[in-house]
What does this fold into?
Amino acid sequence: MGRDPGAAAEPSGRGGAGPGTGGGVRARLLGMADHDLSGFERTSFTHGGTARDVLRRGEGPAVVVMAEIPGITPKVLGFAERVAAIGCTAVLPVLFGDPGRDPDPAVRGRLRAGAYVASSFAKVCVSREFTVLATGRSSPVVAWLRALAAHEHERCGGPGVGAVGMCLTGGFALAMATDERLLAPVLSQPSLPLPVTAGRRAVTDISEEELAVVKDRCARGGLRVLGMRFRGDRLVPGDRFAALRRELGEAFTAVELEDADAAPDASTPPHSVLTEHLIDEPGQPTRAALDEVLELFRTRLLRTPA
It folds into this structure.
């Protein structure tokens, strides 16, 4: 597909580093929890008059990785490294927070860690780019993300693009799938709209018009949507996944984990399947969920049909 004429990508000249330098690993071995972004290229992308920083790692078809609150943590970067390791390009837009900063209270102290998370969430709540409570609407930032995905498809090649949304960005991957280039959307603990009322518990943050487009793609067999949640997660009610099953049919695969499957040493209740609550060991349910995500990317983005 042709490049979006309204989009441009420009090197930012800040903090770029070639892959394989290992600085982030060394920092963690020295007891420094923050990731120094070694191995990630830092660029910027502009669309519709809005410029944001973007981190990139790897080669091959692009996968857009949208971080959860409070931002691109070391564990989000670790997930991106796994995406790059299978032969894809991990593309991480900086939507909020400080890239590489570890929010773990064991590292920061509870007051500082809590203040950082609260600050990131507050900025999202007041931003016009994010639809936190409204139903029947996609967040305006999704248009920018679609343009980023289109640009990365042209840049990286391959049959299409993958996308992973987490927490507040979880539903963005679904709304991005109105573009035929988006072949592998993953909704990890999609938390918007915040389920503060019964009506908000059973919907995802996508407009009715865009949902109709996604449903048509699913009906035609051109799309498989993967969602994941912990069963006890109050931010991602079971009603939300039940509604996605009704709307998308067999094209929607739900991975629903027991709370006991989450990493026991995490500082928050079970929520972040691919990052904070991942137990990265063979045989663990969260590891199986991670493997299913990576297999979706292999199948949809890397394998040539016979």
Q: What stands out?
A: The CA atoms of residues 10 and 289 lie 35 Å apart. Residues 1-32 have pLDDT under 50 and may be disordered.
